[in-house]
Request: fold
Amino acid sequence: MPVLRPARRLRRRGVPLLAAAALYAAAAAPAAAAEPGWTAEPVAGTAAAARPGGDRPFFYLAGTPGTVLEDRIALANTTDQERTITLRGADAYNTPDGAFAVRPADPAAEGRPQAPGTGAGSWISFGAGATVKIPPRTRAVVPFTLTVPPASPPGDHPAAVVATEGGHEVGVRVHLRVSGPTLAALTVEDVAVRGRGSAAVVSYTLVNRGNVALAPELGLEAEGLFGEVPGRTGRALPVELLPGQRVELTEPWPGAPVLDRVSVTLTVTAPGGARAVAAGSRWLVPWNLVGWTGAGLLVLGGTTTAALYLVRARRPRPDPSHDEPTAAGPVPAPEHELTGASR
Reply:
């Protein structure tokens, strides 16, 4: 499961959508990147005329179902020895953490019992030029075709051209848009708060429910028992969410309270009208403080019990002889002193 990153493997952080043509294009990472000794990049063309030097960081192709599209990749050998480079097309997808990755050439070789890719990567063909021998200090241009099947659904079909030599891979992204209605839609799921205070994070899952790639932005609002809690203003997420993909992300929340019951609301938007809202709640309790408080109460309770026991132990016991009841009998009438004159 090669993951495309800058340098050895290309990884893009976002895709701005072009409003006029409703098409998206990468603008961040360079396409060329390789182990020292050779590079792979799109051949400059009219699509890159507006860029300084005419360089293209990716392949952008668009067409209707049944169309055969053509483009070219440049392989440059900068060493003094011959290089043998193998080219292939590969389907692209998001890893669980949102990275852009491509399907391996042989899934079984990586212990992944999955079927070969059937997406846009399998539509790419190099014909007899899939293996290229490049002499020292030479640049080779290799053409390829991408045949859009007649029944292809509209929308974005992410793929990549992967160049391999000696176990090293360089991936150049292919952005394919098939003509037809497009839908930008997403959902937010499984919102949960973890940690507390400055170490708190909000975990959640994003799912692309539409047929175009999305560059989402996230806003975080929170409310506690004692009123509004500081959240996070909207910001662009470092992920390009491909159609039909699901990613699990976390958002730092340094403003989370230490002791409160909080309700967190996430609002995610993306160009094209995509918008989703989801919420989650949790008690934030400093358990270490609770533990020390409980221990203190136990000690105080034990001390109080011991003190009461000592007080009762030192109290003098009454003399039993004073507690004997007197014998029952007639009670003599009280004597009255008579005063005054006799009658």
About this structure: Helices lie at 287-314. Confidence is low (pLDDT under 50) at residues 5-34, 47-51, 287-297, 336-343.
